Amino acid sequence: MFDSDRDELFESMSLAGIETAIIPGVNPEGWAKQLQVAKQYSCPYGLGIHPWFCEDEPQRALEQLSEQVNACIHDPYLVAIGECGLDKIRKDNWQGQIIALEAQLSMARQLDLPVILHVVKAHSEMLAILKRYSLPRGGVIHGFYGSYEIANEYIKLGYKLGIGGLILNASAKKLKTCVAQLPLDSMLIETDSPAMTPQNSADSRNTPLILQSIIAEIANLHKKSSVLITEHTFRNSMQLFDLKLILI
Ligand SMILES: [Zn+2]
Fold first, then answer.
1. pLDDT tens for residues 155-179?
2. What percent of the chain has pLDDT over 90?
3. Record-annotated residues binding a divalent metal cation 2 (predicted)?
4. Does the first or last residue of the chain, that is N or C, have fewer Cβ atoms within 10 Å of its Cβ?
């Protein structure tokens, strides 16, 4: 997606004060390229199997995941298991999604890593599973879209909510109402780049450069300064992914 201008993108991110970005994994075929980009730009990363790329019988992919994670286990830039999760828009592989999710939650618990969770139209199923796998380091529900009540259920289980470009859409009323009530220590900001382009964006690809707009919108909803929101969300990411060894 960014092969032709990745250098320029990282350059403009740094000019905009964005030090780095966490790059999540999606499937065995994608890990090599992902690891290469992460290494080249010194980005922390997650390794996982995304529900869109999950087969009905994901055992082989899970073995590959376990091998890949073992190969990277001493790399301080490996900071999470994920993306993994549940997506009801892709119902055809639902059983496989559940098997893969549970295996990845076990892996995260065993390795004491947080998880990056993708949850679309499946919050009640996800909450039920998370209650069975208590992870000491929790994780983030990335690209969260839901009500305050649902967000609160995740917070009670020790998870944070990833707020992305959806918050910039004028039609996202439920999400705006939710974010306005969320405690500042429960949110991370994210791009989900290159997906989740805000509706009013001129670029068809989403890029990390929208982070400032997301911060401005959260600040507006909380009636706080952008600096305060930046400080909180930065600290939340540092804590969740334990980035101190990498960034400071
Ligand atoms: Zn996702």
1. 999 999 999 999 999 999 999 999 9
2. 74
3. 118, 142
4. C
